[in-house]
Amino acid sequence: MKYKYQARTKEGEMQVGNVEAFSKEGAVNILTSHGLFLLALESAEEIHWYDSITSIFKRVKLGDLVIFTRQFSTLIESKVPLGDAIKNLLNQTENVMLKSIIREIATDINSGLSLSQALERQGGVFDEFYVSMIRSAELTGRLEEALIYLAVYLEKQKVWRSRIINALIYPIMLVIGFFIVVILMAVVVFPNIRPIFEDSQISLPWFTKIVLFTGDFLVNWWWAMVLILVPIIILLVDYFRSKEGKIVLDEILLRIPVIGRLFRKMYIARFAESLSVLIKGGVPIAQSLIITSNSIGSNIFREVLYGISEKVRSGELLSNTLREESYYFPPLVSQMVGIGETTGRLEELLGKVANYYNGEVEDLIDRLTELIQPLVIAFVGIFIGLLFASILIPIYNLIQGFKA
Fold first, then answer.
1. What are the domain boundaries of the chain?
2. DSSP for 288-329, written as a single string
3. CATH fold for domain 154-404
4. DSSP assignment of 67-100
5. Alpha-carbon gap, residue 100 to 64, rounded angstroms
6. How far apart (Å, rounded) are the C-alpha atoms in residues 259 and 277?
7. What is the domain class of 61-153 according to CATH?
8. How many CB atoms lie within 10 A of CB 363?
């Protein structure tokens, strides 16, 4: 792939150009190896709308990647040679797409590439953090430890994702069912009983009038809603896929009460854990920050960490730069990093920060899963009550009118 970059030389001169690499991390390594201080890096290749559709069929699920990494770590831990380990993985893997990728990795390794280089060629499956961990392990001779860590790391991400999704499935289905009932009542039921209410000239409650108006609007103007909403949705999706839109979406997520706090703690845990392992593996701090920024999962945190890495390159302490970004990194993080820098145990203190915030994320997910479902059930229950009241109250008033 071709990437467009902005960088400064050691003399401070601005340099702009293009570089070709298998992944963004590979482009970063090429530029830094030439003594350049990277300011910006983005893909220079045109992305077509159909690329996102075809990428769906080329995607490997996180669960399959977890199994692959766990099996790989077990084989390497058992002292199975790398070539034989890849062959065993190829025979054990059931996912067709992943099997094809493993076959390509085996071919690359047989042709003389290292494991990290072979994984780097599969950038859509193995992210920059994964590849960087393997590369640093190859340099230090600790491939077994790196794979075990990656297996544990990916399993943790899968557990978090599964717990959040499982907590949201029931409320989402409940809300969807509620809106289906509302639409059916407004479009099918109310138009049939509306003439009765109009002939009797009884007074209708405000919520009954809202449901009647909604039904009329949907029946008569549904085509206008489609013509208006479809382009708006397409424009919004296109915008939120852009660089600016991704940052705006991340900012919105971070500012949602409770949810924003969960994401912030999750990003901090990933930051501390990834940076700790990379530094322990011998990767320079500035480069570790760039690698971490691309694997953290947030465009806002990525931009912030890019800025921090540039300040670290210029000679500032990591703790001081983190202190300046107190909105994203609480004082605890900068204080622990400062202690690590003073005592020479930075990776150890970052590990403690990661453990602390991992625990915070676990507690917050537990509380959310306990609160979300009762809140949604109460919310839907209130509106279902109003919906049926909008029918029953006019009928009751009608009956009372006949009695009178």
1. 2-46, 61-153, 154-404
2. HHHHHHHHSS-HHHHHHHHHHHHHHHTT--HHHHHHHTTTTS
3. Receptor-associated Protein (1.20.81)
4. HHHHHHHHHHHTT--HHHHHHHHHHH---HHHHH
5. 13
6. 27
7. mainly alpha
8. 11
Our separate counts of H helices and E strands in the chain read 17, 3
Distance CA 286, CA 29 (A): 12
Dihedral of CA 28/31/32/38: which sign?
A: negative
340 alpha carbon, distance to own chain's centre:
29
Q: Is 71 in contact with 92 (CB distance < 8 Å)?
A: yes
CB-neighbour burial class of residue 319 (10 A; exposed 0-12, middle 13-18, buried 19+): buried
Distance of CA 104 to the CA centre of its chain: 27
Residue 374, SS3 per DSSP: helix
Alpha carbon of 50 to those of 59, 229, 243: distances in Å?
Answer: 15, 21, 18
The pLDDT profile of the chain, 404 residues, written as one tens digit per residue, is 667 777 777 666 667 777 666 556 667 766 776 677 766 677 665 544 444 444 445 567 888 888 899 999 899 888 888 888 988 988 888 888 888 888 988 888 888 888 888 888 887 788 777 887 788 778 767 788 888 888 888 888 888 788 777 777 877 888 888 888 878 877 777 777 777 777 776 777 777 777 778 777 877 887 888 899 899 998 888 888 887 888 888 888 888 888 888 889 988 988 998 888 888 877 788 888 888 887 777 888 888 998 999 899 888 999 999 999 888 899 999 999 999 999 988 989 998 998 999 889 888 888 887 787 788 888 888 888 887 777 777 777 777 666 65
Q: Are the CB atoms for 43 and 1 separated by under 8 Å?
A: yes
